[in-house]
Amino acid sequence: MRDVLLSYRLPTDKSQRNTRLIAGMYTLGTLILFIQAVLTQRINNFHIFRSSWGHLVHGLPLYKFYPAEYGDLFLYHPSFPVLFFPFAVLPLQLSLLLWMLLNTFAVFYAVRQLPATPKQHNMILLLILLELLNAIQSSQVNPLMTALMLLTGINLQKGRVRSAALFTCILFFIKGYGAIVGIMFLFVDRKLEYLKYCIIFGITGTLLPLLFISPATLWQHYADWFALITDPFIREDCSLFGMLHAFHHDFSREPTPADTWIFAAAVGGLATAAVCTAIARTERSRFLLLAYLMIWVVIFNQAAESPTYVIAVTGAVSILTLYSHKSVKLVLLVLLIFVTSLCPTDLVPKFLNDLAVTYQLKVFPLTIVLSYIQVMLFFQSGEVKID
Fold first, then answer.
1. How would you describe this protein's topology in the membrane (predicted)?
2. Is residue 307 within 8 Å of residue 138, measured between CB atoms?
3. Which is nearest to 315 in space by CA: 292, 339, 282?
4. In 105-123, which positions are buried (b, 16+ CB within 10 angstroms) versus exposed (e)?
């Protein structure tokens, strides 16, 4: 036991070298994707983020099409343009590079805060690299959300409720669903203090755009945002629902009765996981729940797209690395990395890529991992040591 603690607190020279090597891989991968983005100009999401700041300060609607500026819609919280302000005012290429590096190393930092050995940190960082680079390539915000979700859970576990509340609120002010990890406050001490800071940061963030626009304009932005995110036809179908629709050759965007039953089962599973966590009252159960939430919020999200999966994959890889049995860990990690992270890319034969994309198989391994975590939460019998 003493040797385990020493290995956790005092990383060896070898582990430090490996960490530096992985950091170099993260940097190199990000720089390559930055150069690719500059050459191809495939940075639609980044244009959406940058333009939102100009639309906000000039009193323009945030949630309408601007085909002359970018494709798709701005789907984020009305306060997001203010948070993105530093990247909106810098020169385009510099801000893009800083944005991509921020997303990359936010995940790198957050993973290294997990209660694990340096070897386990490095394993997690390596296994999520492909999924992370996929998200970075699209200049998405999902890696940053992944980091904030991890840091929310970690800080709640450590009793740092003010930091946890801040991260929870930032998640909400980017994409509302990321704040689901705040549920973990129910299972730690200092609940009222956490809620107090959530209220303080929540009110501050909600009113933040008033520094630049009128109350009436802000109210309209919130009304438009709520109408947009509750529209059932805002769907990417890279979810469990999408996979089932694909297997039934139903490629319409119409919600089906089966979707309602699946979502009801998903809510029931989440409630069961929360109850099991409350009963267990261990660090292990709380981190199991954190991973559960990170997977759940993606695979049952009909607006999820491929870059969103860095959230779910990071949660799954982290918990499998830390707490699963070795045989189960090997099988699930191989399935996860191959089917979820590799098959949807051009790194596999075309027939495998076509199969994975057509039938939305990206979600399949994560559904199995979620079920496995559900079983672990239900049958858990105390702490599992980190070896």
1. Multi-pass membrane protein
2. yes
3. 292
4. bbbbebbbebebbbbbbbb
Q: Residue ranges of the domains in the chain?
A: 234-387
Dihedral through CA 151, CA 157, CA 162, CA 164, nearest 10?
30
List, as one string, the DSSP characters of 158-201: TT-HHHHHHHHHHHHHH-GGGGGGGGGGGGSS-HHHHHHHHHHH
Using 50, 70 and 90 to split pLDDT, how confident is the model at 253?
Answer: low
Query: In this structure, what token pair is assigned to residue 173?
Result: 């002010």
In this prediction the pTM is: 0.91
Given the structure tokens 């090997």, which residue do they identify? 330
- Predicted local distance difference test score (pLDDT) of residue 252: 63
Q: Which residue has the higher pLDDT, 210 or 356?
A: 210
> Exposure of 196 by Cβ count < 10 A (0-12 exposed, 13-18 middle, 19+ buried)?
middle
Which among 72, 98, 111, 118 is positioned nearest to 294, based on CA atoms? 111
